[in-house]
Design brief:
Two copies of one chain form a homodimer. Chain A is an alpha/beta fold and 253 residues long. Chain A has a single domain (4-185, 217-249), classed as 3-Layer(aba) Sandwich (Stationary-phase Survival Protein Sure Homolog, Chain: A). Chain A is 26% helix and 28% strand. In chain A, the strands form two sheets. The first copy, chain A, has a nine-stranded mixed sheet with strand order 3-4-2-1-5-6-7-11-8, sandwiched between helices. The first copy, chain A, has a two-stranded antiparallel ribbon with strand order 9-10. In chain A, helix 5 (140-155) links the parallel strand 6 and strand 7. Chain A is globular. The N and C termini of chain A lie far apart (56 Å). Chains A and B meet through helix 2, helix 3, helix 4, helix 5 and strand 9 of A and helix 2, helix 3, helix 4, helix 5 and strand 9 of B.
Chain lengths: 253, 253
Amino acid sequence: MRPLIFITNDDGISAKGIKSLIDVAVEFGDVLIIAPDKPQSGMGHAITINHPLRLDSSRLFEGLTAFTCTGTPVDCVKLGIYEVMHRKPDLIVSGFNHGENTSTNVLYSGTMSAVVEGAMENIPSIGFSLCDFDADADFSEAQEIARKVIRKSLDSSFPSHVCFNVNIPKLKNEKIKGIKICRQAHAFWEDRFDKRMDQFNKPYYWLTGDFTNADAGEDTDLFALENGYASIVPTQFDMTAYKVIDEIKNWEI
Amino acid sequence: MRPLIFITNDDGISAKGIKSLIDVAVEFGDVLIIAPDKPQSGMGHAITINHPLRLDSSRLFEGLTAFTCTGTPVDCVKLGIYEVMHRKPDLIVSGFNHGENTSTNVLYSGTMSAVVEGAMENIPSIGFSLCDFDADADFSEAQEIARKVIRKSLDSSFPSHVCFNVNIPKLKNEKIKGIKICRQAHAFWEDRFDKRMDQFNKPYYWLTGDFTNADAGEDTDLFALENGYASIVPTQFDMTAYKVIDEIKNWEI
């Protein structure tokens, strides 16, 4: 029996990235697509609890079952499992994201939160991002990487309660050198707000900033990408800072 | 000089919880309040990038500087640091949340994401939640716990790039037994969708479900709370699953 592969993203159902990922996934199994009806970048692990959710059939992908959802990528995963499939798929893939989801961006990324949700459900789950924000980005190299990672993931014993964060470099004149297993780099946004005045002379703000790598390690996702490799960070949802538990116990609050 | 304490929440500026936390914070320092203008529960680490943000002065708290923000709790923290204070505060507190943020709820919780953002900025940051969803909940015991945790946090060397997830049990006829330093329990939502039909006979869905503890450990936040203790989980933003890195390297993708 062909595996059942669930597909979502955060750029919305009409993005080029999800179509490019679907084209790879259908080589490996039967697919179900539920994706946001509008861009949901930066939605992180948000779920929709103060508004009802809508789910509408989509005819975008000929011969494939697809729905749009009014909610977030995590909503898409929950609706897929508990309302549409009434079972767990064999694999969840999310992406291709238009733009990198390296390092601490895993926290802001809807693409990655969808697969972190998959890990919570103990479903093998992989988020794919191409380091190119262009709406017309060329995903052919990314597809090659995805093909390898999906094949190996289906053939192997996928680690329980873990998901993969796969980032693929944007390379022009050279080939991707390979795939490195990495840790999340210690890197941060130095935020800025672009303050503008509206037609009533009242201020509004656009979030912007620079992403800065504070990590000299050669085992990070950012190092791999800078050196022409795709990166995989195995990612977990246990956020306990085990290293400081004993220290805080000594505080005797 | 009195410390500068930044206060936010995810239930919105008019919630009883944030007022109860402000009343504790002013005992320890000067405060700046920026809170969402509407409930933002379940927003996780979402940031607002597809809409502009608004920031409006609030007169809700006499003698204190407060703003409402149209965005998420993480937006509030970013606006506070980079647009309003133009410096890092000495402490960030978020809450009191109306309802628990134990275990994997740390991922969904706007209350906790605000302080995870604080940890990324390397600011001592503490999220406080009372295990009582009632809008009129009694926060007096929670205030006692917050007082102890804030005092100790300001007097101690707060661990770098870590935040605290503090949950306080709802107890009626007994006192809280103390405060336990814990790990995040391995517990999950078994989701359900409440499917209803609108006035045009089209379906819509409300997310609901049951939270189930799959963790028999006695060192978890859920165990502490069930046994009458408040829990503190030191929480980090590095989500790398270090334990499986070598295993995946052996896959030779």
